[in-house]
Specification:
The chain has about 280 residues and is of the alpha/beta class. Helices cover about 35% and strands about 25% of the residues. The structure holds adenosine-5'-triphosphate (ATP). The site of adenosine-5'-triphosphate (ATP) has 10 residues, from helix 1. Keywords: ATP-binding, Nucleotide-binding, Translocase, Transport.
Length: about 280
């Protein structure tokens, strides 16, 4: 299988500090990859480099063999939809208009009836159809997140009307504001999209969720990839302790070997943290 998105020796520096440091990584068509790692590891920066939003300081990103910097914004929009982390909207649009923005570049020539159908479906899949005429700015955090997912779905779907080519959906913490029902619904929808051949790359903080939805976990720390593989191989107590600086118990599902990451029943360590905090406060 040919690699769809390939990053080679990718670095990104600000004021001499490397936020991404010589990362080489590939993504195949139709795989679900979760990027995990502690705060400040460089996950969002890596996603923005992959999406073409940021230009690397060194190295390259190629989409189906074509360097990202050579792809026009319109051609990139056909290949990938991005749901950024908490992207703010300046205007008070109704929710269906927010979703319709996904059609702005790739769906301009769609007949209205087809465009309406795409928007309606995306709103339904994202669980915000009942909020279609609400002002986006009045929605709760989780509702806004689902509306932004609908916008990304609209772009993905409209782009498919242009022909058959590889596509990716890039999600930066798509479930950070969602309750359990909607976390499972959104990631289930992303999983179904993978089934249609789209590559999904999602930044996820919940290791249990990442392990269950992704085919592969990429662990980022200090701007470098420190592990890459199936969850059953990547996640263990040592990784959680060394990379996430948390003492957790990692059990295994007997049938699948998938990790179950749990807080230690002994909470003395929490007491130590609390005492250290109070001593400084
Ligand atoms: N434009 C910038 N200028 C200076 N530092 C930056 C800039 N953008 C990001 N950083 C720093 O780079 C590091 C990586 O940021 P990034 O947002 O990629 O982390 P992350 O892994 O997504 O973190 P989180 O889990 O907290 O969202 C952080 O320490 C951040 O403060």
């Amino acid at each position: 299988m040919n690699t769809f998105i390939q990053a080679e020796n990718l670095s990104y520096a600000v004021n001499g500090r490397k936020l991404i440091d010589a990362v080489s990584i590939g993504f195949d068509p139709g795989e679900f990859v979760a990027i995990i790692g502690p705060n400040g590891a460089g996950k969002s920066t890596l996603l923005r480099l992959l999406s073409g939003e940021l230009r690397p300081s060194a190295g390259r990103v190629a989409w189906s063999g074509e360097p990202a910097e050579k792809l026009s914004p319109a051609r990139l929009a056909l290949r990938r939809a991005v749901m950024a982390q908490g992207a703010a909207l300046a205007f008070s649009y109704p929710v269906h208009e927010v979703a319709r923005q996904g059609l702005a570049v790739v769906g301009r020539r769609l007949p209205k009836i087809q465009a309406d159908k795409i928007v309606t479906r995306a709103l339904a899949v994202s669980g915000v159809q009942h909020l279609s005429y609400r002002n986006f700015l009045t929605l709760s955090g989780g509702e806004q997140q689902r509306a932004r997912f609908a916008r990304a779905l609209c772009q993905l779907k409209a782009a498919q009307e242009h022909g058959r080519f590889c596509q990716a959906l890039l999600l930066d913490e798509p479930t950070s504001s969602l309750d359990l029902e909607h976390q499972l619904a959104l990631l289930g929808a992303a999983r179904a999209i993978v089934g249609s051949g789209v590559t999904v790359i999602a930044i996820v903080h919940d290791l249990n969720i990442a392990a269950r939805f992704a085919d592969r976990l990429v662990v980022l720390a200090g701007g470098r990839v420190v592990a890459d593989g199936p969850a059953a191989q990547v996640i263990d107590e040592a990784l959680v302790r060394e990379i996430f600086r948390a003492t957790m118990r990692v059990d295994r599902e007997s049938a699948t070997g998938l990790p179950i990451v749990l807080p230690q029943t002994n909470i003395n360590r929490c007491d130590v943290h609390a005492q250290a905090f109070l001593a400084r406060f």
